[in-house]
UniProtKB/TrEMBL annotation:
InterPro entries: N2O_reductase_NosL. It comes from endosymbiont of Escarpia spicata. It comes from the Bacteria. This is Nitrous oxide reductase accessory protein NosL. It holds the Pfam family NosL.
Length: 151
């Protein structure tokens, strides 16, 4: 189960990935995909970057596997790159379109959008399967995305 967190409105201020930062889930160099970056920052300042929301959620849903020694309660901020504006926004506040025809660096992806209206428009324009919120993301959905079952 994902950790609920108080809402932070607007963009979040998190560091950008450097050229050698790799996604802890897939190992890709994250800075190569600035339009897909997601970031977790812990209270001690430690940061993990991801090449998309899908890998971010895989990480959050199984911290013992992807981040041994890190605890969900020590997470300070989580940001995802909003599809249209390319700004890093609070992952808890984003609307995610699942099952669209837009592919990220790791294939089928959760597409983060800032407003419900943007998500509804994106859903229609890109043949999405649905709109979900942070707390609704589940491992089964991520597996279906990896397997291309939302098409």
């Amino acid at each position: 189960m994902l950790l609920a967190q108080p809402a932070i409105s607007g963009p979040v201020d998190l560091p950008k990935p450097g050229p050698t930062d790799t996604c802890p889930v897939c190992g890709m160099f994250v800075a190569k995909y600035p339009e897909w970056v997601a970031t977790v920052r812990y209270k001690d300042g430690h940061v993990h970057h991801f090449d998309g929301a899908k890998d971010l959620f895989k990480y959050l849903l199984d911290l013992p596997k992807w981040a041994p020694g890190h605890q969900a309660e020590n997470i300070d901020s989580i940001g995802v790159t909003e599809y249209y504006g390319l700004a890093l926004i609070d992952a808890h506040e984003a609307f995610y379109v699942i099952g669209s025809d837009v592919l990220g660096p790791m294939g089928h992806e959760l597409i983060p959008l800032e407003t419900k209206e943007d998500a509804e428009e994106f859903l229609q324009d890109h043949k999405g399967a649905g709109i979900i919120r942070f707390e609704q993301v589940a491992e089964e959905m991520l597996k279906k995305l990896d397997d291309g079952l939302f098409e």
